[in-house]
Design goal:
Number of strands: 10
Strand content: 35-45%
Domain VOC: 7-131
Protein name: Glyoxalase/bleomycin resistance protein
Helix content: 10-25%
Radius of gyration: 15 Å
Length: 145
């Protein structure tokens, strides 16, 4: 079986106004944040084992090593693996399948994450990550931190 599998754990959307997003989702819709990092990102659990991240656009670009890559459209899909070595394994598999490595495996900006970014042949950006603070309980609830 493929190391990538058929799953996405995070859906990350770049947003030019994180405060407006917070007002809309939290204040107006009543969504409960899983984690809220002011000025950077808000995470919401949207399904068992699935999290939506609303990421400040400037921070999103920095995470990708500069301005978002062509075709990224401010969106990443994330696949989490159990080890740091697993990040490299999946990146190599995706590259061999025609993916383009945007950022090689490296330590992330927060939370002890180790990650890389790979664009598929159509420009869809995947973040491949090992996050020691990421856990999915038996009931599907995500625990961050």
């Amino acid at each position: 079986m493929s190391a990538l599998g058929q799953q996405a754990h995070f859906i990350t959307l770049s947003t030019p106004d994180l405060d407006a997003s917070r007002e809309f989702y939290v204040d107006a819709l009543g969504w409960e944040p899983l984690l809220d990092v002011p000025g950077e990102i808000i995470f919401f659990q949207i399904a068992p084992g699935t999290v939506l991240g609303l990421f400040d656009a400037d921070k999103f670009g920095q995470d990708l090593g500069g301005a978002p890559a062509a075709g990224a459209s401010g969106v990443t899909l994330a696949h989490n693996v159990g080890t740091r070595d697993g990040v490299g394994d999946v990146v190599r598999q995706m590259e061999a399948a025609g993916g383009r490595v945007l950022t090689p495996p490296e330590d992330g900006a927060f939370g002890g994450i180790f990650h890389a970014h790979v664009a598929d042949p159509n420009g869809v950006v995947w973040e491949i990550a090992h996050n020691p603070g990421w856990t999915v309980r038996d009931d599907g609830r995500v625990v961050l931190g």
